[in-house]
């Protein structure tokens, strides 16, 4: 129980607000078990209930971001490893917001003459902290405090001046019904624009994102040339992707 409740706590911490049904689906637990875990975490003052959701009881956003980077880090590293061979010397790439990309900065460190455009402030700092031979361009815009990324009209206009060889995009949820979705509209606006300005689009999503739907959809699975994940998804996804141009790869 101790390990599982810790995993549930980390998931809530990472996603900030989560429904009971989502926890049941992600962790394959009964409703009674999930509610028992929730009550224990509330008693420990680690989470709180709020309008049908449970939320992490934390005010320090930078600590929250660090937790998201550390959460499921092995899965994220394996996804970054899948993406690495597709980034070639001389490429111009876009890297959007998302903690999976923090590991991407490490695995492409030996590439040469890259131009990396990003709205992800933490990723930009990570690149600066490596020996990566790259021209790093940070797009302007309003900073989203939750994602530590630039969004808004200025960011959209700036992106219009580029055409990328490849884009690397994350999502909060992936479903057959709603495609790839996210929690906030400004982030989705950036993602939609990037998809339209890239020769090849790569979706980087860990297995916990499948069968999750969030309010704002930014693309269908078929809008991506590659979908990388850490674990083989349900057969319904494999069967659907076979009808598309999309290539799916997983590390396990």
What this model shows, in words?
This protein is α/β, with parallel strands linked by helices. It folds into two domains: 2-58, Arc Repressor Mutant, subunit A (Orthogonal Bundle), CATH 1.10.10.10; 72-250, 3-Layer(aba) Sandwich (Rossmann fold), CATH 3.40.50.1360. Helices cover 38% and strands 25% of the residues. It has a seven-stranded parallel sheet, with helices on both faces. A hairpin with a 4-residue loop joins strand 7 and strand 8. The model has no long low-confidence stretch (mean pLDDT 89). This is DeoR/GlpR transcriptional regulator. Residues 1-56 form the HTH deoR-type domain.
Q: What CATH architecture of the largest domain would you give?
A: 3-Layer(aba) Sandwich
Rg over CA atoms? 18 Å
Instruction: Give the strand order of the largest sheet, numbering strands 1, 2, ... along the chain.
Output: 6-5-4-9-12-14-15
Count of extended strands: 15
Domain module count: 2
Overall mean pLDDT score? Answer: 89
**Tell me, what is the CATH class of the largest domain?**
Alpha Beta
Order of helices and strands: HEHHEEHHEHEHEEEHEEEHEEEHE
